[in-house]
Amino acid sequence: MARISPNAQEILGKDFLDTLNASDRCDPLCEVVAAGWVLDGGATLLSAFRESYVGDRASFSGIGSYEAAVNGRGVPDLDVTDTGDEQTRMLMRRGSAFAWDALHAASVLPWAPPLLARISAAPILMDPGTWTGYVTFFSSRFEGDLGLAASADLPGIQIVLSSIDCENPLPVM
Q1: CA angle 15, 11, 75 (to 5 degrees)
Q2: What is the pTM of this model?
Q3: Are 151 and 5 in contact, with CB atoms under 8 Å apart?
Q4: Is the pLDDT at 153 greater than 80, yes or no?
Q5: Residues 37, 44: Cα–Cα separation, whole Å
Q6: How far lies 130's CA from each of 78, 88, 109, 158, in Å?
């Protein structure tokens, strides 16, 4: 079941996920989804992200931390001119639509991995008035290892989606 942090509910509204649709997609992220998923030594990875990842797998203590590192990326935002809560809403809509599409695509994989996506927005360290979005995918069996808790315990602006939440494609509006 999807989880939304209290801060995210305050800015986005309780029905935020119900309002997502295909128009929230971002072209560069659609290309990532189209490239598909791969299974690499027990890790479920977005193929496009695996190809561009430069870290050393041996430096990770386990599969979950490797998945999160490879499958974590910023939400494209160079064209976003909104500021404040509107900027946050735009970043979360793009990130959530990407997460939904990727999790939907994963739901039909032969190895049927139960996956989670953490979508977040936070201020940039050097410019707290500017926000950035981020999406990370990982197998649900690692959620405890990666610090996820019940909805009330999610800090900041975060949404956690599961592949079960995304069995149906985003509606076209």
Answers
A1: 90
A2: 0.94
A3: yes
A4: no
A5: 7
A6: 12, 9, 37, 17
